[in-house]
Automatic annotation (TrEMBL):
Quaternary state and interactors: Monomer.
Protein known as: GTPase Era
Cited HAMAP family: GTPase_Era
InterPro entries noted in UniProt: G_ERA_dom, GTP-bd, GTPase_Era-like, KH_dom-like_a/b, KH_dom_type_2, KH_sf_prok-type, P-loop_NTPase, Small_GTP-bd
Amino acid sequence: MPDPSAQSPANPDLDAMLAKVLGKDTAPAPGAPDAPARPSADIEVDPSAQRCGFVAIIGKPNVGKSTLLNALVGQKVSITSRKAQTTRHRITGIRTVGPTQFVFVDTPGFQTRHGNALNRALNKTVLGAVNDVDLILFVVEAGRFNLADAKALSALPPKVPVMLVANKFDLVHRRGDLAPWLRSMQERHPFAEFVPMSAKAPRDIQRLFAICEKYLPQQPWMHDPDDLTDRSERFMASEMVREKLFRLTGDELPYTSTVVIDKFEEEGALRRIAATIVVEREGHKGMVIGEKGEKLKRIGTEARQELEKLWDCKVFLELWVKVRSGWADDDARVRSFGYE
């Protein structure tokens, strides 16, 4: 891991950072492509010129971390929804750009409510991810900072360089008003860099790669250049079902619902999957199944289509719904459902 004191100043030049926030020096060089291309696996890069390192993406729930990870990887590897606590696991996304391989780690939003076994496990995942990385991207909404942001910021280790990513910058109408906010943020933490951006803008993603690259050590790549994630297909199947569950039930269904894969079989270009949606109350079961089973059918159809697109193969998906009262506050059951 590089020495952060050698990589970034303790007190960055606020004038330069303000220039970025006020709209200067935010675009890539003229003629630059909108997004970096993924290198072909048959293109060799001299190992002595390679860089590789871990970049953790940290922030409060629902601030755009998973959207950012998917944009950085160039394909969907982390599920998204408007419901808080959507991301529950340490998700690794891999992107190789030129001689540099970025290993991005998306984490659950740092939990400040619901002190149950599930949320204790989620916070443990966050804390475990940030102590062994080369760079941290601390994601906030541009111009905003509340108690949940402060709690997430307080969890960061002191010896890892932290970059402030001001997401949703495109929604800020009066950029000059951000100057006091930026100064207050620098008083809260000695950020190595300030990056105003939108996770949905390809040119901003390209610029973020260039900024992050210098913080990664020179060392051989850890993964094949075509790899997207180190997570298994079985894991991705459970995540896709859970995403559709949350998206299609909205705020009606409590965040404690989860998905367990009961069967995962590969038959050539076919995947046979059986999964159980676990809810805490009998009433929640009805919400998931819907009238005449239509809601459950739609969840299964959309998850299957997403998986077929991701894997480029045929998927047969069977879903069940079971009630497990109080599972989210039972440490043993939380672990049995795959939460660390």
